[in-house]
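haha ok so turns out i had the wrong file open the whole time. this is the CORRECT one, sorry everyone. sequence first:
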Amino acid sequence: MKMDPKKLGLAIGLTSVLALAACGDSNDGDAEGGSAADVSDLNEITGIDGGAGIMAATERAIEAYDLDLPLQVSSGAAMTEALANAIANEEAIVVTGWTPHWKFGTYDLKYLDDPEGIYGDAENIHTFTREGLEDDAPEANMVLDNFYWTEDDMNEVMVAIQDGTDPEEAAADWVDGHSDVVSEWTDGVDQVNGESVSLAYVSWDSEIASTNVVKTVLESIGYEVEISPMESAYMWTAIAEGEQDAMVAGWLPLTHEAFYEDYKDQIVDLGVNFEGAKTGLVVPEYMDIDSIEDLKSE
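then structure:
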C-alpha cells in the first residue's frame, strides 16, 4: 500500500526530530552523570620505563597519598600515545611527566600539586663521563664539559623531531642555526682525525635531542660518534664500567639519585648542562583536579 507523499514527509520529519531529541537526552544524561574526565574513571597511572627515578618516586607517592591506582610500567613513547588518545576523547588520564618535554607545547597540561614533596624541587641534567676520558679524548671531554643549553634550545629540537624530522637532521639544523652557542662549546678545541667516541642515553625526548646535538658537534670537529639508547640503569652501569664514554642525561638530585649513589665514585661529573628540569604527575587541563590528593579514592 502506498503512503500519501505528504504523510510520508511528515513521518520522516517526525522521526528525525525524535532521533535528535534522543541524542540530546543522551548527552544531557552524560552531563548529569559526569564527564568522561571524571577522576573516578581512572584505573591506573601511566608510567614510563621501570628503571626511571620518576617511577620510584611515583611508587612512593602512591603510598604517601594512599592512592588506589596501580602504576603501569610503559615507555616514554607509549605514555605520550596514551596521553594523546585520552585527550582526543577528553578522557581522564594521569601520567608520569617531566619538563622539558614537547607534550607541554602540544597539549594543555598541568602538574598536580605535591604537598608531600615526593617529587622534590626542580632538577638539573648533568654530563657524566667514564674515568680516563679526559686523557684519552681531551677534545671530546672539553666539548662535553662546555655543553650547556636552555629550555628554548632543547624545545626547538624536540618539536622538530615530534613533527617528523629525523633526530640527526633536527640536531644538525639546530647546530647550523645556533653557531654562536656551538662556538662557545668548541672554543679552543682542536680538530681530531676520526677518533671514536660513544654516547649513551635514555630514549626520552629531551635526551634524544641533547645527545644528537652533542653527537653532531663532536662530528664537526672530526670524531666518529656512536650513540646507544638504553634504560637508565644500563646507561649508568655502562659509563661506570667504561663500556660507554659519556652521557648528557643524568637527572639529579631525584630522578637518577639511586644510580648516582651507586656509581658516583666510578664516574666523572662534568656538571650541569640543563637547569630547571621538573618531574611529577601530569593531567590534562580539562580535568577538574589540582593536587595529587585529589586522586585519592573516597
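The chain has twelve helices and nine strands.
again sry for the mixup
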